[in-house]
Amino acid sequence: MKDTMNHPSSAIDYLYVDNLSWLRQLIYRRMGCNELAADLAQDTFLRLLRKPQEFDSQEGIRAWLSRVAQGLCVDHWRHQEVERTWLETLAAQPEDHALSAEQQAILVETIYELDSMLSRLPEKIMQTFLLSQLHGKTYREISSEMGISERTVKNYMAKAMSLCLRVQLELETSQ
């Protein structure tokens, strides 16, 4: 398999033809929708095109495809949850606070981007970031609540902010 990876288009063609049906079936069993399975399978192969991998065996290929597809399924479920929560929040708002369809779309996209960014953070760093940015707590309050030093809170926040900047750069360069 390694030799075929030296010629990406032929390797990708081979991987795609040989594994697409299997991957779509795997995703369908998890998601229960043919159209969604097709979309997520395509997204899985797009990841492979963006970041080529070397594989030693068919099992290695399928393990990688399965792992990436599982991540995409989780992302899809998380987006559904964000959207459901957003719609419930919208329904609870008084009419005079209603957002236009365009404002709603922008806000939902921003929420998806934030969720994607936060899901990349280790749990304690994400918790620190949310306590600071969402709940407005001071570093001292976070330190006390989480049972860590203020210095650790500062380090966690620096890591979270660094990731925010990297994600922002990724988004800007992909557009």
UniProtKB/TrEMBL annotation:
It holds the Pfam family Sigma70_r2. Residues 15-80 form the RNA polymerase sigma-70 region domain. This is ECF sigma factor FemI. Belongs to the sigma-70 factor family. ECF subfamily. CDD domains: Sigma70_r4. The gene is femI_2. Residues 113-163 form the RNA polymerase sigma factor 70 region 4 type domain. Keywords: Sigma factor, Transcription, Transcription regulation. Gene3D superfamilies: 1.10.1740.10, Winged helix-like DNA-binding domain superfamily/Winged helix DNA-binding domain. The keyword Ion transport does not apply. InterPro entries: RNA_pol_sigma-70-like (IPR039425), RNA_pol_sigma-70_dom (IPR014284), RNA_pol_sigma70_r2 (IPR007627), RNA_pol_sigma70_r4_t2 (IPR013249), RNA_pol_sigma_r2 (IPR013325), RNA_pol_sigma_r3/r4-like (IPR013324), WH-like_DNA-bd_sf (IPR036388). It comes from the Bacteria. SUPFAM superfamilies: Sigma2 domain of RNA polymerase sigma factors, Sigma3 and sigma4 domains of RNA polymerase sigma factors.
